[in-house]
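Let's do one together. I've listed all components of the complex below, 365 residues spread over two lines.
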Amino acid sequence: MMTKSDDQAGDLFDALPVVDEDATRRLHERLVAAAQRDGLLDLAYRTFNTPVGALLLAATEQGLVRIAYAREDHDAVLARLADAVSPRILQAPARLETAVRQLDEYFAGGRRTFDLPLDFRLSRGFRRAVLTHLPEIGYGSTESYAQVAAAAGSPKAVRAVGTACVTNPLPVVVPCHRVVRSDGSFGGYVGGEEAKRTLLTLEAA
Amino acid sequence: MKPFEQIVAEHGPMVLRVCRAVLGPAEADDAWSETFLAALKAYPELPADANVEAWLVTIAHRKAVDVTRARARRPVPVEELPDRVSSSGRPESWDGDLWDALAGLPDKQRATVAYHYLAGLPYREIADIVGGSTDAARRAAADGIRALRAVYPRNLEGAK
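Okay, and this is what the predicted structure of the assembly comes out as:
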């Protein structure tokens, strides 16, 4: 940035564009390709629009590691990923192409299960046990928090199941929205109650 | 630590201007790409209180030195290569006269001018990057600006 107070150079560099959009885009693509080639793209991310709002998708080389709702604040989510996984993060849509296509199909009503490599490194212990059970709850059906606790091996850990669901790093794909209260009411959801209603209504159609 | 994407977004344009000024538009893309790939690799080890601009310019400077050395080994002097792109119509094209003027400067003057006026670095940091004292860096930049003014008067006239 040219310092305004330093007028020695004056307008000497006016011919150099401060931001060159085309070059910036071209060089960014090239950086992503080189980073991928050299194994330096620890995290690739992109956002895309869905009936439940803009979703952030992030993937390691192992698989999809994070899906975030807009209400979680995408910038804050990326900052936490930088600390928890790696700061080598670039916006790189190519790695997320398959995930986006499957999510598009799901939201259009044409897909009932996801076939994606998942990276569960953000969850440990009992929470992880809960998350690995959730895909067994079929499309269109629901389970209560107590049922999930029992299935995950700790029938008394009903409250911990709630925590595992609300901290699910991969909502929608790992269907924590299919866990509801035993009285049939929705219960909390990482994407908000409205998003949970949208997903359950979609699956009931 | 910020996601590296944010480092690219915040500082990428500055590094591109510096690479263009130091190496000319033809070789700037390669230098920018190598700079940010090297930066991405080293980024997790960057100290939290590091000056990111100075860090990036330091890497870019090393890449520019590599390019300049490779250029010196080539049989054909670079001045005879078709480097001018001022009328190419491409969006990144810029004033070929300015590039000619910059290319005519001694390496140290061109580097100090770019790092101070385009990267906004203080002369103390520039001295660390190019070697020598802070005063020597300041003098090199002043000499560089004076030399540029002498051969590149067009903007001065345009500003009147």
